[in-house]
Amino acid sequence: MTVHAALTARGLTLATAESLTGGLVGHLITSIPGASGYYRGGIVAYATEVKSSVLGVDALLLGRYGPVSPQVATAMATAARELFAADIGLSTTGVAGPIEQDGQPVGTLFIGISGPFGTQCVALRGDAAEGRNSIRAWAAGEALNTLGDALSTPDTTIRS
Fold first, then answer.
1. What pLDDT is attached to residue 159?
2. Using the 8-state DSSP alphabet, how is residue 113 labeled?
3. Bridge partners (DSSP) listed for residue 114
4. Burial class for 152, CB neighbours closer than 10 Å (0-12, 13-18, 19+)
5. pLDDT over threshold 50, residue 160
6. CB 2 within 8 A of CB 152
7. Mean pLDDT of all residues in 66-88
8. Is this model's pTM higher than 0.85 or not?
9. How many angstroms separate the CA atoms of 28 and 58, rounded?
10. How far is residue 106 from each of residues 74, 121, 125, 139, 154, measured CA to CA in Å?
11. Domain boundaries, the chain
12. Which are the contacts of 33, defined by CB distance < 8 A and separation ≥ 6?
């Protein structure tokens, strides 16, 4: 089941907070007719200070774990969910390259999901040799695949 079909069938709404993907997740979501029925909106919080000032991610959390971490990914997802009054928040943070960031190698991706079930984070590693734009496109697709997997698992993490 696609993200579109699952959200529509369950009557759930979605919001996004993106860093690594720079709005590509929102772009993919809104490219599907009918997305306005479930997509509340999204924020591109590319700069670390925007994660704190706009999304409200705790500055101490950012300082302790860095902007590319599972802790920040889940905080971003929760912030998107709350800011847009959505049922589910989806976030991406990671490293597109060409160099590592805060000790995280190129291709690192953390996907945060927040909903009435709590929060979860999936960590993935893409191919650093693919280049910046390919990593970003891959990350956006993986974020939606991860959400789709969670939505298609009956009676587990995401319920309406």
1. 46
2. E
3. 89, 119
4. middle
5. no
6. no
7. 98
8. yes
9. 29
10. 20, 18, 8, 12, 34
11. 3-152
12. none
